[in-house]
Design goal:
By secondary structure, this protein is of the alpha/beta class. The chain has three domains: about 40 residues, no CATH class; about 130 residues, Rossmann fold; about 130 residues, Rossmann fold (3-Layer(aba) Sandwich), CATH 3.40.50.2300. The protein is about 40% helix and about 20% strand. The strands form two sheets. It has a six-stranded parallel beta sheet with strand order 2-1-3-4-5-11. A six-stranded mixed beta sheet has the order 7-6-8-9-10-12, sandwiched between helices. Helix 4 links the parallel strand 1 and strand 2. The radius of gyration is 24 Å and the shape is elongated. Keywords: DNA-binding, Transcription, Transcription regulation.
C-alpha cells in the first residue's frame, strides 16, 4: 500500500504552495511541466505514488539564466529587464526548453547552483552581465557549458555576447540635441560604474568632438541611477543655483526623468529652458509632462537574440565567438526644443 502525504506537508518539503500541489494532484491546467514533475517525482520518492499509475518521470532540458547584481542600482525590477526576460522566456518555450532563473549578488555562494548547471538537463547558460566586472564573469567561464553574456562585454573572456550599441545610442541622442540647435549640452552621468554607461560617455564625447563643440565638464553631473537617488542629488545640485546648459544628455531614462522632476520643481521649464534626452524608452517616458524624447532599446529582441545564439552553440557545438550589437532608434517626443539660430 502506498503511503499518503498531506498536500500541505508535501508543499512544505518542496517550498511551494499547497494550492500548487493540489492543482498537480488534481491534474489542473496552469502548472508548468517542471513544477508538475517536481511534485510527482517527490511523491514517487516518498512512496505516495507508484510509477505504475501512468506517470513516468521525464527529463526536461532547461536553460539557466543568471541575473547578477553587484550593487542592484541598475539591475532591478524595471520594465527594461522585465521585457528582456519576457523575450528569453518566450524563445525558450517556443524552442522546447524550460527556463530556470537565479539571482546572485556579489559574493553569493555558487555551490548550490553549480551542480544544477553541471547536470545533464542544463543545456546552456545565459548571464546578465550588466553589473558584472571582469572577475565576476570569469567565475562562469570554466563551467564547460555553452554560455552567452547579455548586456556587457569583456574582451578578455571568450564568450558570446549580446550587447546594446551604446556608443551609437549616445551619439545619436547627442546629435539630436545638436541638430536642434543646442551647443551647450550637459551630461547627466551615472554615479555607478557599469560598462554600458562608460560606452555612452564615449559616444557623447565623440559626437561633441565631431561637431567641434566644447565638452562642458562643469555641466557633467553624476547621479545615482535610481528614481530617488537621481532626484535628490539633482535637487542638491540645483540648490546651489548653478548656471545650467540649454540641454542635457542622460545615461538612461531613470536619470533623465528624475532630473526633469527636480528641474521643474526648481522652476525650469522643459523643454523651453532645458531640453533633455535619455536612453531605454521605458513606458513611463510617455507619461511624463512633457513626454521624454529617448533612444529605443529593443529589449525583447535582445532576449530573443540571446536565446537564438545560445541554441546555435548548443546544437552545433560552434567554436566561433560572436559579439552581437543591438542598434537603438530615436523616439521623438516633446522634451527637446529647437533653438533658432
Amino acid at each position: 500500500m502506498n503511503k499518503t502525504i498531506k498536500a500541505k506537508d508535501l508543499a512544505h518539503l518542496l517550498g511551494i504552495s499547497p494550492s500548487t500541489v493540489s492543482m498537480v494532484l488534481n491534474n489542473k491546467p496552469g502548472i508548468s511541466e517542471s513544477t508538475r514533475k517536481l511534485v510527482l517525482d517527490k511523491m514517487i520518492e516518498l512512496g505516495s505514488l507508484s510509477p505504475a499509475y501512468g506517470y513516468k518521470p521525464q527529463t526536461i532540458d532547461f536553460i539557466y539564466f543568471v541575473i547578477f547584481k553587484k550593487h542592484g542600482k541598475v539591475v532591478g525590477d524595471t520594465p527594461f529587464f522585465s521585457q528582456l526576460i519576457e523575450g528569453i522566456e518566450q524563445s525558450c518555450k517556443s524552442s522546447g526548453y524550460n527556463l530556470q532563473i537565479a539571482y546572485f549578488n556579489e559574493g553569493s555562494d555558487l555551490s548550490t547552483t553549480l551542480p544544477l548547471i553541471h547536470s545533464k538537463e542544463c543545456k546552456g547558460l545565459l548571464l546578465l552581465a550588466t553589473e558584472m566586472a571582469l572577475a565576476d564573469a570569469s567565475v562562469f567561464t570554466s563551467l564547460g557549458c555553452p554560455t552567452v553574456l547579455l548586456d556587457s562585454a569583456f574582451n578578455e573572456i571568450a564568450l558570446d555576447t549580446i550587447v546594446i550599441n551604446n556608443k551609437q545610442a549616445a551619439g545619436c541622442a547627442t546629435k539630436q540635441l545638436i541638430h536642434s540647435g543646442h551647443t551647450n549640452i550637459g551630461y547627466l552621468h551615472s554615479a555607478c560604474h557599469i560598462n554600458n554607461f562608460s560606452e555612452r560617455k564615449d559616444g557623447y564625447h565623440r559626437e561633441l568632438r565631431r561637431s567641434g563643440l566644447h565638452i562642458p565638464t562643469e555641466h557633467e553631473y553624476k547621479l545615482t541611477p535610481t528614481v530617488d537617488g537621481a532626484y535628490s542629488e539633482m535637487k542638491e545640485i540645483l540648490s546651489h543655483d548653478p548656471v545650467m546648459p540649454t540641454a542635457f544628455f542622460a545615461d538612461n531614462d531613470i536619470i533623465a526623468l528624475s532630473a526633469m522632476r527636480a528641474l521643474k520643481e526648481k522652476g525650469y521649464r522643459i523643454p523651453e529652458d532645458i531640453s533633455i534626452i535619455g536612453i531605454d524608452d521605458m513606458p513611463m517616458c510617455e507619461l511624463m509632462d512633457p513626454p521624454l524624447t529617448t533612444m529605443h532599446v529593443p529589449k525583447h529582441q535582445m532576449g530573443v537574440q540571446a536565446v537564438k545564439r545560445l541554441l546555435e552553440k548548443i546544437n552545433s557545438n560552434s567554436r566561433e565567438i560572436l559579439t552581437i550589437e543591438i542598434r537603438t532608434s530615436l523616439v521623438e517626443r516633446q522634451s527637446i526644443r529647437t533653438v533658432k539660430g
